[in-house]
Amino acid sequence: MTITTRQLLGGVVGLVAAATSFAGPEEDRKAFQSFYFDRFPQVTDHADFKNGVYSILPEARVQWEQIEEFPPYELAIEEGQALFEKPFANGKSLADCFPNGGIGIRQNYPYFDTARGEVVTLELAINECRTTNGEKPYPWKKGPLASVSSYMAYTSRDAMIDVKIPDDPRALAAYEDGKMHYFTKRGQLNFACSDCHMYGSGQNLRSETLSMSYGHTTGFPVYRAKWQEMGTLHRRLAGCHESVRAKAFKAQGPEYRNLEYFLAYMSSGLEINGPSARK
Amino acid sequence: MKTFRMITVLSALVLAPLTHAAETKDSAASAMAAAQSAWDEAAKLGYWWLTTERVMKESKKQFEAGQYDEAKALADEAVLLSKATLAQAKRESETWQARMPR
Description:
The complex is a heterodimer of chains A (279) and B (102).
Chain A: H1 5-21, H2 25-39, H3 58-69, H4 74-85, E1 111-113, E2 118-120, H5 122-132, H6 144-154, H7 169-183, H8 193-197, E3 204-205, E4 208-209, E5 222-224, E6 229-231, H9 233-243, H10 254-266, E7 276-278
Parallel strand pairs in A: 5-7
Antiparallel strand pairs in A: 1-2, 3-4, 5-6
Helix pairs in contact in A: 4-6, 5-6, 7-10
Chain B: H1 2-44, H2 50-64, H3 68-95
């Protein structure tokens, strides 16, 4: 049996069509990133998206860089390091719960824990380490947890976000749940994350310029001038939900963990530069 | 006979506001229960509005203060809000994928 060129071509076309009609996370990520590359051609170095909205606002960036010289989050890093190194009552410490003693690992979070069947964020892992060692958990959105997370991010600066979706249907489901959440309109004002942070990115909303979701997880935790203190990513997510008059979900509940999983996966390849400062 | 009639009239006069109060209390309570179940239905789908929660809290507050008409009006409003939330949940579950970049 001989195969004609035509049959061969037909087969190739069929394969290509099959591959493009299945949009897995990898295809999602490429489309997601290209969206921003096309929308902001002035950002020629794509790695610069790690700087959030400042990658598209040259003037605000100058101010921001000045702030970053004497960063308002410095105290949080120091406090975080002290808490990180302080032994628990049982003699163990946070370092004992993490790969590489917890240093330089922020880029691998959140990850899908196949044994547990759920997404584990860095903040969840920190608090679980405390409770399994007989210590009280920290509050989720600010304070000591934000400090420890800041310190751990700081030791991971310049490492590239490396969030994986393992070959496990539950991992894919968690990712899909986060994705669905990102694109669905919520709250009485009827806005999706994507309405503001994709299709509205670069535009002004009241006094703020809407940031891109490519790079949304690189800089957290952040010191926000409006808060006058540090906050975790989930604190920010709750704030965005409330701004569209949706009730926020619980910090570190499954909804926000899945959403973080999606966001972090979309930002794969960008460098961690947290903690950072925001307006 | 006359006295009996007078007692009936008098007691009707006295009791009417009481039964009215009992009625409005009941109808407020059932409006509030309807609001709660409409809320639960949307919340089960992961949709909830801050606005609705505030209206429901206010309704409870009015109820506790004995302001049953106000409590009922607010609970009715909350039902409408939760119906809108449910409609949003349904619409979004059918349309969100169109919002993805490709």
